[in-house]
Amino acid sequence: MAHKITRKMDLNSEDFYVEVEAPLVAERFRAGNFVVLITVPHGERIPMSIMKAEDGKISMFIKKLGKTSWELYKSLDQFEHVIGPMGKPIDVKKYGRVVVASDLVCGHAENYALCKALKEAGNYVISFQTFPTAEEVYPEEVLARPVCDEYHLTTEDGSKGEEGHYLDILEEMLESGEKIDIIFAGGSLPNLKELGDLTKDYNIPTIVTVRQIMVDASGMCGACRVFVDGEMQLACIDGPMFDAHKIDWDAALRRPMMYVEQEKIAYERCKKLGRC
Amino acid sequence: MAIKPRVPVREQPVEQRIHNFDSVPYGYNEEEAMAEAQRCIQCPDPPTCEAGCPVRIKIKDMNRLIAEGKFKEAYLLVKKAHAFPACTGRVCPQEDQCEGACILTKVGQPINIGKLEAFVADWAREHGVEEEGITEEREEKVAIIGSGPAGLACAADLRKFGFKVTIFETLHKPGGVLVYGIPNFRLPKEIVEYEINKLIEMGVEIKLNITIGQNISFEELKRDYDAIFLGTGAGAPQFMGIEGEKLNGVYSANEFLIRANLMKAYLFPEWDTPISVGKRVGVIGAGNVAMDAARTALRLGAEEVYIIYRRKMEYSPARNEEIEHAREEGIIFKELVNPVRFIGDENGWVKGVELIKMELGEKDSSGRPRPVPIKGSEFVMELDTVIEALGTVPNRLFLSRTPGLKTDRKGVIQVDDNLMTSIEGVFGGGDAISGAATVIKALGEGRRAAEAIKEYIDSKKKK
Predict the structure, then answer these.
(1) CA distance readout (Å), B109 to A232, B39, B74, B79, B106
(2) Are both B148 and B290 inside the same structural domain?
(3) Given a cut of 60, is residue A225 above it in pLDDT?
(4) What's the domain count of chain B?
């Protein structure tokens, strides 16, 4: 059942790229879907965004954060399970002028997949990818440039591409009266909240990925509950993308912090074993 | 006539078992089982115990065979009624079924039918008893969605009829609630694995990590199989819907138990999945799942664990054995109280619950007195972990992606007398068609559906 890793490479000092054989997932993947990974037999179930799905393989961007990701980076050449596609795909149709924005690892993966699907549907797609400095910018081959119509690489210190976060540049665009029909975004949750605050004033539909802790990722446990317009929704089956204007952000920002202590313990132990 | 008391069941001592997840009862050995079975007075037919059994196990004959030391024969007899006696012997609510109907309850203690059933199954497993094989191979293919009790039971019988059987399971381990829900201390996982491996040896194919409607469409399945059985269970949790449910430290029992059982969080950090258990844990509800969650929390290091129940424990739907075991282990029962809201600290973690006192009123539709809040009786209880065990409903993931399937308002799949759903050739059983019920009911329905599927395929062939 194991899934062979066919390519692994550094994206920057923190993030890496993984390509793995997963024919069933690759065949059925649609933009907005995610995958559940179990790296080792004793592993946890980790939801992960997909950058692209081609030739029976899927590609992902992963941040070296804790035990699972470090061990994967350092010691593994296969996954125990690759499960999916999970989640609800976005409604891929012609909206007009579409913005896709991201500022963190999984968001960047989604950026590519969303741009590709939305462009194929006949939209004019404007992609924003924000990195802190030139040093963190990913290799050109994985950026969304070739799958969109207008590409904005931005760095927060201006050391490469345009200067500033996508939020700043987007705000200028909106102030200048540029027409945007819909925005899709992923990455840092606090920034997605801010994005929602910004676009609400302009009345632009804004669909964002609400990354939450998941266990079964099939609607059974309720761990990933997100409150949208006062209603409880599950990120795993109703999402992971929701209307940024309707999300209870306080709860969504808090829930991913639940296992910070345990994550440290698992990582330290793995490091001692020489696998992380 | 003086009736001897039950042969006691040896159990792991309390002070030892609250630190591990091993089985609490050790079960009967041969001598004990024979002695217990010899207490059976072999009532004239029809015996009341069998009428109390949802799958009509020939209990009287089982008892007689055990009493005579014919364990293999006793096992094969039980297996004629259903596929997984090692499981039901441990998880059936016997006091409401066979044992509750045992004539001896009128004069003393009923026969310990549950432990005898588990004994014959364990004995057969330890002695490698083989059952009859497949009579004739058939060409027709049946797909089973869900590998819980209903699906497994249906698969076992369909395979015996000779059909090609494939089970599709969303999770990465088969067994459904037997694996993700019921803790090891109540149902050791090696027992479930043994039973599932038997099915695989018989030729049942199990495809893991597949969600029908998500990564394989229901339409594809209909095209490729002669019949389909839906054993999709009732796996989605219900929440109270009160203030503070968004706080960290508030779990559904489903999540808590999936982490502990399926993902083995009790072995963290050897296993990767974490679980968070505070010093004072409150479990809302008093059914079997609540007992499981409370006892799991205790084993994970909680200092005080409360069952918070709006009625009195005598009205709890949990098995007597679980309530007894929980009490012995030091679980504290807070009766006649109901949560009003959960209270959080400045970091968004739960730190307490506001409860309101209840009193019992008129009987409600469940036949139990309705709990009524006492105005102005609210008080706060400090807790750092809350587990809501309020029952489950069918998972809407599968339902939302299966057009044409008739359900009720809660998503319970509607079936006819032959367990056929609103879609021709598609049958259902277990919690998916009844909301949330028992393992034995699911096993019985899986079996009945297998019969119905055979008839359906045979009749289609004749046409």
Answers:
(1) 48, 10, 22, 26, 8
(2) no
(3) yes
(4) 3
